[in-house]
Every structure is written in C-alpha cells, then in structure tokens.
Amino acid sequence: MTLKPITAALAAAGLLAVGSAGAWSVNEYFHRPATVASVAASTTATEASAAAVLPVAATAPVAPPLAAGTVPDYRGIVQAYGPAVVGITVQGAHKAGDSTPGMPSNPLFEFFRGGPGQRFAPPEGQPFRGQGSGFIISADGLVLTNAHVVREVKEVTVKLSDRREFRAKVLGTDPATDVAVLKLDARDLPVVALGNDKDLQVGDRVLAIGSPFGFEQTATQGIVSAKGRSLPGDSYVPFIQTDAAVNPGNSGGPLFDAGGRVVGINAQIYSQSGGFQGLAFAIPISVALQVKDQIVTHGKVERARLGVSLQDLSQPLAESFGLKQPDGALISSVTPGSAAEKFELKAGDVITRIDGQPVRTGSDVSTRIGASAPGKKVQLTVWRDKSSRDVEVTLGAAEPSPAAQAAADTPGSLGLALRPLTPAEKQQAKTAHGLVVENAGGAAARAGIRPGDVLLSLNGQPVESAEQIRGVLAGKPKQVALLIQRAEQRIFVPVELG
Predict the structure, then answer these.
(1) pLDDT tens, 160-218?
(2) Which position among 99, 133, 138, 148 bears the catalytic label?
C-alpha cells in the first residue's frame, strides 16, 4: 500500500485532469476543484514576520473527556460544532520541481501519475486550484488546517457552513508536522471545543467532518485503530490511526472524540486506489497546538535537536546488547558538534527513557525531542555496557530543513536538497544506499526530478553521500545521468547542467 496525504489521493485513481485553463480539477462526475498538491513547504519570510506582530485572541479551552463507554451523540456533535468546520479553496501556480497535484512526496509512490510518457512534474507556472478543510479555534478567526493544503498559494478562501466567505491570511506553516495556521478578519465566529489526544484509547469512537471530493459538511464515524503511529518522512508526529472514512478534501478537517472535542487534524490515508481503504491518520491536537502557539507568537517553529541517528531494536539486537526486551532507541551514529557528542553519547548506546518516561522506539525519541525547545535540559536514561546510566543533556537547535531552502540554480549545480535514507526507508525502498530528494529546483527540476524521489546513482556510481555528488560536480560536467527510484520503478534521467 501507499501512503498519501488525503488531499492528494485522487491522482492515483486517475480522477484528476488538466482543464482548458491549465487548472487541476476533478472530472465531470464532480465538477469540483481538485485538492492541493501534497508536498508541504514553508511560508515566505514576509508572512512569518507579519504573523509575529498580529494580535490573536486566546483559543478555546481544552475540555474534559467523555466518560469511557458513553455512547456518542453524533447528531449533537455535528449540530454544535459543524458550524466551526470550514471549507478551504486555494489558488496558486506550480514552481519548478513542484510535484503534480495529487502526488505525495513519498519514495514508495507510483512512478507515473497516468502512465509512461508523462512528465514527472507539471510545467513551472501552471496554475492550480484546490480544496481542503479546516476548523475555527478562536472566535476572532484563528483556523487550523494542513500545511500542504495552503502551500505555495496566492489566494486562500475560507467558506463557513452558513455560506459566508472570507479571504484568509496564512500566518505560518510547519512542513515537518503538516500544520498551518490561518487568520480571518472576522469576529464572533463559531469555534470547536478542544480535547486531549492523550486521553484517547484504541477502540474509542471518533467522528470526522470535512469536505471530501468537495461535498461540504460531510460527517463520517469510526474508531481509533492505533496511536503513536510513525509514518515515513513524518518523524515528529505520533499519528492517530482511525477507520473513520476520510477522502481527498478532508485534509485539515477535525477529528472529534465521542464527547465532541477535537483530538486531531485529518492528514493522510493509505490507499492504492486513491480513495479511502480503512486506514486514515490524524495529527494529534496537542502537536498542532504546540505548532500554533509558536507560529502565533514568533511567526515560525523552532525545534530542539539531539544530534543522533536512531534505529529500532529487534529481539536479536536487544539480546546482543544485554537487554531482555527490544524496547529503546539504538544510537547508530552521533553528529559531530551536536548536543549528543558534547554530552558524550556514543554509537551503541540505547536510550531507554526520557525524563523518566519509557522509550519503545526511535520515533518516541524523535517526537519528544522535536516537541522540545532548543536549550531545554532533558534527562536521558542510557543503556551502555550492559548497565543503565542517567545523562543530562542540553538540547541544541535543529537546523533548517533543506526542503525549506531554495535549491540553487547556478551553472554546474543539480539544484537538489538531499538527505540520507532512514533505515526504515531503505527497507521500504529495498535499497542499501541512496539519498532522498527533499527539494528540487533548477536543472534537476527541469529534468523532472521532484521531492520524494530516491537518488540511487550518479553516472552509474552508487550514491552514498552529498559530498560524493559535490565531488563529481566539481569537474563541471555538462550533463549527468541520475538513477531515480519512485515506488518500485527505476529510471535513468539525464540532467543538462549547462
């Protein structure tokens, strides 16, 4: 199966087509704008600086959970909070290297949108329209949605259930968590009640409201299937998995618990057909509110960094390190100059607790550290030499993601922002080497390379690091051949450097 942001899944099913004006639209069965492309991107510096000085009222208070076993009143939830769920329509134009609307930046996605012979990416400047969902959390117009719903857009229009429409300002986006904050110039708006996702348990009933396929105010129900799901490329988010039916257009809409409190933002689905297949994933509301607070206060999101590469323990690995259970995060490498190196963490250490809370997998470390502020002190319990010890570490600041920086377009440059594959991604892509494309511009984008592709080789030589690529480009070649993997298919792509 293939992981897709839910605003994107239509393309895989062949339901997207290019209109006469070049905009992406759903086929004649729906006559609705298609959803937005799937790769999240940061807002401009101008938007971020403007957000820092914009006064915003406090959001709705967090409400207590419904008692366990209580039968939910779905009708009451829709009547009470449906007016605070909004439809979002956007307009924009594709940049160089932008992926086709409906195509997620995932190395396991189908190689072609509609079959062989099509370009990997739409032409630069091609306009698009898209739709998503969102919900109002303050009476003066603060709205939460997904970052990929409003990326690279020129206009954002928010439509309420009473058919009022407002032009929205994007206060900021956080691609790492796929959360965006919008602001409406309005007062006395309906708001949702906020819940606590930590109170959710597997088996609890939930309700999703949004605009799937452009059908406004659609409610679907299900249960919590799992919590703390770690998905490829989303190391900061412990997703809530549900079987509530969500589809393209639900992106950014709220996930309610049985008491009518918002506990998540619907963001992704697993699908081979492009439609719902029983696996939906929501961003916990606690994660979204942390992002919202930073965007409203500072106009951007800052994260802490430990500076280690981690992998999950298997039973044989655990036994080899003297552990009875495969719980913990194994450090496979330490970044030079990082907080981890400063406080003498080593490859082979196993992080078993953070501030006294148990660690089961590497994603536990990523989410907890990523939710912390730079400069915070954390207590790590580390297993080393078959004994446990406590280490107090002052966290450093995470470096900006390459995807948030423009890829260079200078003579002799590929124009790619790259990162190493994680162990899980290597296993999924069935490769022992390669680099993930986080951003594409310039020559590579013109050749059709796009975010989410896996670069396997350069001129026939397996790619192991960015330094290796820079060494080849130092010779100023006029053309290079890149072996790219997208889903399970591989193809050589010639890139003219000029």
Answers:
(1) 999 999 999 999 999 889 999 999 999 999 999 999 999 999 999 999 999 998 888 99
(2) 148
- With CA atoms as reference, report the closest residue to 450 among 489, 403, 412, 404: 403
Is 251 catalytic? The answer is: yes
On whether the pTM is more than 0.70, the answer is: no
CATH topology of domain 304-397: Pdz3 Domain (2.30.42)
Annotated catalytic residue 230: no
- With beta carbons less than 8 A apart as the criterion, state whether 109 and 486 touch: yes
CATH class of segment(s) 3-298: mainly beta
Catalytic residue among 230, 251, 271, 372: 251
- Give CA–CA dist 179/15, Å, rounded: 26
Interacting residues of 471 by C-beta distance below 8 A, sequence separation 6+: none
178 is catalytic: yes
- Predicted confidence (pLDDT) per residue in 107-150, tens digit: 333 222 222 233 344 555 667 788 899 999 999 999 999 999 99
DSSP structural state of residue 314: P
Domain boundaries, the chain: 3-298, 304-397, 402-496
Class for the domain spanning 402-496: mainly beta
Please identify every stretch of the chain with a pLDDT value under 70, giving residue numbers as ranges: 1-69, 93-126, 232-235, 274, 399-412, 498
Annotated catalytic residue, options 178, 234, 327, 349: 178
